[in-house]
Amino acid sequence: MTCLLNKGDRTNGFSLAEALLALLITAMAASLITMQTGILSSGLSLHEDSQEQFAILQLRELAAASRNLHVENGVLELEHNGKHESISADRGRLVKKPGYEIFMEEIDWAVFRQEKGVIVLEYSSHGQTQTWQIR
Predict the structure, then answer these.
(1) How far is CA 113 from CA 11, 31, 61, 63, 116, in A?
(2) E strand segments, the chain
(3) Strands 93-97 and 67-72
(4) 3-28 pLDDT, tens digit each
(5) Is the Cβ–Cβ distance between 77 and 84 less than 8 Å?
(6) Longest C-alpha distance within the chain, in Å?
(7) Which residues pair with 77 in a beta bridge?
């Protein structure tokens, strides 16, 4: 079987309509990628209050899993996994010791209080005082 190719019928390159269609598709894909990048970057940025809410949730989870919780001089003392630990404000941060696990940063002060069997964290950050029940 023989295949004949007539060179006179063949054209090289793209027509103007094909080039414009390819340019339109490329522009639409670029705009979609740009929009997705903007949405992802705005979704990944955490606000300060979100970070504080995560810290409160972590404190509540730790308190629920701990034994012998009590407050002494504004410091939360607890026993977790057989170890004695304390949570208090230190150099503008709310931290767990021993070690230095940071729960919150950029706080002015923080104290724990125990009222009628309820443990409460009161702290000031950026001039605003907030109170949260921990347990």
Answers:
(1) 84, 53, 18, 14, 10
(2) 67-72, 75-80, 83-90, 93-97, 101-105, 109-115, 118-125, 128-133
(3) unpaired
(4) 555 555 556 777 888 889 999 999 99
(5) yes
(6) 98
(7) 70, 86
